[in-house]
Structures are given as C-alpha cells and as structure tokens.
Amino acid sequence: MTSPGPVGDRFRRFRERLADEHGNQPSVSTAPGDLTVRRDAEGRRRRRRGGGGEELRVPEAEFTSYYGRPILKGPVWKWDIAAYLFTGGLAAGSSLLAAGGQLTGRPALRRAGRVTALAAVSASAVFLVKDLGRPARFHHMLRVAKLTSPMSVGTWILTVYGPAAGVAAIAEAAELLPRRGPLGLVGRALPPIGHAAGLLAAGTAPALATYTGVLLADTAVPSWHEAYPELPVIFAGSALASGAGVGLLAAPPAQAGPARRMAVAGAALELYGTHRVESRLGLLSEPYRVGRPGRMLRDARLLTVGGVAGALLGRRHRLVGALSGTALLAASVLTRFGIFYGGVASARDPRYTVVPQRERVQARRAGMDLPSDRADPPVV
C-alpha cells in the first residue's frame, strides 16, 4: 500500500493541530478503511470512527451568494410601474362601467366611466413612458407584433384601447356644443361615434386588465412566476372593483345598480386570487404574507369587504355609496402595490430561488424513480 503522500501528511498535521487547540482528539481517522461517511435523518453528514465517537455535523446551509448579491437580477421597475398596474386596471374597469351605463340608459355612469377611463389611460401612458425613458421607445415597440411577448401584446392593446377611450370621452362634450352651424353638425355626429368607441374600449378592457398579470408572471421573479394562474384573476377582480368604486362615487344611488354588481363580482375574484397566492405557493407565498406586502394585502382585503358591504347595505344613501367607492379604490391600489412589492421581495432573498428549485428537482427524481442526491453515500 502506498503512503498517503504530501496532501495526506498536511491533512494529518492540520487535524493534529486542531485537536491540540481544542484539547481533545479528533473523532475522524485517516487510516484507510477506518472512515465511514453517513447521513442522519435530516440529511446532515456525519463521520464516525469505527462506528462510534463524537459526531461532526456540517453547519446548516446559509442562503448567500457571491459578495452578498442576489442570485436573481431583481426587477428594475420602481413604484411607477406599480402605479401603472393600478391605472391600467382602473381604465379597464371604468370602460366596462361606462358600457354598462350606456347599454342600460344610465348617463351618469356612462359619463363618469368614460371620463375616468381617459384620465386613467393617460396616466398609464405617462408612467409607462417614464419607465421606458424616452417616448420613442413606445413607438419602436409597434414595429413588431409578437404574440408570445406579453409586453408586445400589451403595447398593441394600449394602442387600440387608448384612442377608443379618448373618442368616447370626447363624445361626452357633445352637449356643450351649439345646436346649429358646423359645430352643431359635430355635436350631432359625436354621440353615435362615442357609443361605438365606448363599446370598442369595453371590448378591449378585459385584455387591458389582465395582460399586466401575465406580464409579471412571465418574469423569473419567483413569487410572480409561480402565481401565473392567479395574477390575471387578481388583476381582473381589482379592475372591476376599481371601476365599481368610480360608479359608486359619481352616480346617484338610483343609477348605481351596475356598479354594485361590479363591486360584488370584482371583490369575489380579487379575494379568491389573493387567498390563493397567500396559501397555494408554499414558501413562495411568504412574501405576500409578511412585511410591507403582507400589510398592504391585509388592508386591501378589509377595505374590499367593507366597500362591498357598504355598497349593498347603503344602496339608498349617497354618502355611504361614496365611502364604499373610496374604499374599493383604495383596496385596488393596495392590492396592486402589495403584489408588486411581494414579487420584488422574493427576488432579493436567495432562499426563494434555491429552495423551490431543490424541491422541484427532488420531485422530478421521485417521479422518474431516480436516485436522490440525499441518499446515503457508500461506506469508505
């Protein structure tokens, strides 16, 4: 048998020096055939000398990365993108509210929905251009149409929705124009054009409300990517609730029936979706339950329930309806910001990237009947 060599001698001297510092003898022998490597029930490695002696345990894993940097490159989006998520949903919900008022003969709902939709989509354009840096970049995105890219699809949705919402809102000014002359002709032509544009905006509104959820889920951010079934549902419910809030604020109780029904439907979708992301994702649900995102989503849930209750119980009181509408709008803001900051928090902590990856690998190996990397190694 050959000698251990210089590497073995250095290791032996290191062990002897370590034993002298601690005042005891090492528990792991370097003699050939005398070292056994085992794992306990928790997967920690331990070395025993001759089957006995003191156990040496490897410390628990710490989820760190080089120079303390995150494993994933976190999203560069700031608060303005979270605001963009809200204003896009508000525009979509307001257009649906306006279409409901138009089809049921409720002018107050129609007017409030159209004006709010134009204001919200204009704010969305400002937030989006602010994030892009230059307005020309939005124009450059219209050079191609890529159905597999949520960003490209969203750009075209905004391109169709924005002008339709603008024409519908401008048509509300027809009543202010004179009845005779060229302006009178314009005033008579605007209402039918506005009706057609309002219906086009309402037809595009569901895509506008939900594509941002698909956009977030299409990233590598763990808590967004894993919640891909729920994010469009949450954003659709939030859009309906915010549109209902506009109707409850602006319309008298006699015309607010569609807004109350929208509030119930939107609250049901929003509460169902947020409950799912807080309970279904395992470890990746944690960013939505703790810290600032957790507080925002809890407050949003309370405001949503309170807003719906006020809309249903105070249907004859204008003040109660206005307070309910305000609560629904505030809940929509908190929901969008809570989902946004929850995803950002999951990208910063390496634990939310490493642990789910290990669990998926173990599940795939178990399903394929492959040996696990946690199995006991052979005895040396």
Describe the structure.
The chain is mainly alpha-helical and 380 residues long. Helices cover 66% and strands 3% of the residues. It has a two-stranded antiparallel sheet with strand order 1-2. The longest helix has 37 residues, at 181-217.
Name some characteristics of this structure.
single chain; 380 residues; mainly alpha; two-stranded antiparallel sheet; 3% strand; disordered C terminus
Q: CA-to-CA gap between the ends?
A: 16 Å
Q: For the CA atoms, what is the radius of gyration?
A: 30 Å
Number of helices: 12
Overall 3D form: elongated
| Number of DSSP E strands | 2
What's the helical proportion of residues? 55-70%
* SSE series: HEEHHHHHHHHHHH
Q: Beta fraction of the residues?
A: under 5%
Could you state the oligomeric state of the chains shown? single chain
Question: Would you identify the regions where 5 or more consecutive residues have pLDDT less than 50?
Answer: 25-51, 372-380
Give the spatial strand order of the biggest sheet. 1-2
Query: Would you tell me the overall average pLDDT?
Result: 81
Based on helices, strands and strand pairing, what is the structural class?
A: mainly alpha
Q: Give the biggest sheet.
A: 2 strands, antiparallel
How would you concisely characterize the structure shown here?
The protein is built from twelve helices and two strands, in the order H-E-E-H-H-H-H-H-H-H-H-H-H-H.
